[in-house]
């Protein structure tokens, strides 16, 4: 059952109306879809990649979180995940290839800077990919972020900026 805080469609609502509409946080409305869970190997692989990226996003500190929310809106994390996974994960594949070209020491440095624990992606890659995607989105949208552009040699800087809380 949907809960409206004012006359329907004039303020905000949450929940669903029958099996037709679902009202979400932030004023968005979507069509109701019956959830499916094929639980195939390919589906688990996708879920593990998404989980790895989300775990990296959860380590984000207050400063950068505020910047991303201010610059990208309330769904900033979905924007970053969407950027990395659109076109069958083309951008994530590009960042993975870049990451794989790093030296062993550079990979270790990124792993040390990344406080999340990935399940499927290489250690350090979720932070690198999420930070690269955030910078790419900011560039396209004209948003200024204090986050340094991630590269092979600046994992310590990016890692510190990523988790900074003051």
Q: Would you spell out the secondary-structure blueprint of this structure?
A:
Elements: E1 3-4, E2 13-17, E3 21-23, E4 29-31, H1 41-58, H2 62-72, H3 76-100, H4 104-113, H5 125-141, H6 155-163
Helix pairs in contact: 1-5, 3-5, 4-6
Provide tags for this entry.
single chain, 166 residues, alpha+beta, 2 domains, four-stranded antiparallel β-sheet, 54% helix, 8% strand, globular
Describe the structure.
The chain is an alpha+beta fold and 166 residues long. The protein folds into 2 domains: 1-32, no CATH class; 41-163, no CATH class. Helices cover 54% and strands 8% of the residues. It has 6 helices and 4 strands; from the N terminus they run ββββαααααα. It has helices at residues 41-58, 62-72, 76-100, 104-113, 125-141, 155-163, and strands at residues 3-4, 13-17, 21-23, 29-31. A 4-stranded antiparallel sheet has the order 1-2-3-4, with no helix packed on it. A hairpin with an 8-residue loop joins strand 1 (3-4) and strand 2. Helix 4 packs parallel to helix 6 (155-163). 25% of the residues are buried. The mean pLDDT is 90.
